[in-house]
Amino acid sequence: MILRICCAVTALSAAFLASQVEGGALKDFFTKKGQSETKIEEQNASSESNEATEDSSNKSETAESDKKGSSDKKEAGEKKKIVGDPIVLRVGKKEWRRSQVLADMRLIPPQLIQGISPDKLFEMLRDQKLNAYLMVEQAKKAGLDRTKEFVERVEQFKEELLARLFLMRELAPKAENESVLKARYTKYLVEFKKGKEFQILHIMIATEDEAKSILASLAKGEDFAKLAKDKSLAPSKDKGGDEGYIPVDLMPPQIKDKLILLKTGEYTKEAIKTENGYHIFKVGEIRETAPQKYEDAIPMLKQTIMHEEMVKLIDRLEKQVKVERFNEDGTPAAPRPAAQQTNRAQ
Description:
The chain is of the alpha+beta class and 346 residues long. Helix content is 56%, strand content 12%. Helix 3 (35-58) runs antiparallel to helix 4, helix 5 (98-105) crosses helix 6 and helix 7 (148-176) crosses helix 12. It starts with a helix and ends with a helix.
């Protein structure tokens, strides 16, 4: 949820690509099947069902109308119905198929793509493949694939990828187990502590000048939601900038420090700068936090289970080998307290 606050539609593909190359949070790579892929498949099934219903209804029309209606439905059906694994992108002789784009969806954390329609996400990931291909081709022409830096980074990435694949194989089944999920949800209810959560409305823009212009418009009384729809780059723009309710203790410090000073209906008088751009926030409502329903908590529960299991796995593997830790100056490092060992995978 917090990722949505700090990530624009235009930055989603770049952030996803960077997370794969640089490592990112390991837990983000264990989503077994992307929610958006499921939604697309459901839309396809729904489209086919609707076609069948319309065909049955049109049988009662006149012959001429039936012929025309059938022709129109066929044309619409050909646009929506997906058969096999069609090509979705071609550059010269290089081709990408639908399944390759759907495979990318499985690797994106669900909270990062909330508010983005499946069709829009598909287009973004398809275009990301085009962007990456064009850059790679230029890099090859420049000889970057033959540099020492490239070879070293490839070896580093191989190790990171192997580690992730191993963790996926070991941990993903546990995070998908219904009984394990329900047991962890029971523990979550016991551990849950009440606090405050803010309904956040959000506008993200690229430049400081744009931010100042929007702040000036707000000062004149213009509607925050309308400005969000017209100007914001965040995925929440279509909902008037509404990011939903966010617990105070989950807010990034630089945002939390500003928002806790606001009352209902107030907005930040200065834009907050992050690596993704400039952000203006408004508090819609403040309320006490409540435990999530089981269905809503499943993504969080899966991440928690995978993190806890990863800590156990690493501890078990570390005991099988001789590990020596040293300080920066080469002197032996002091043994770490148990709490630090638990937090090392976070």
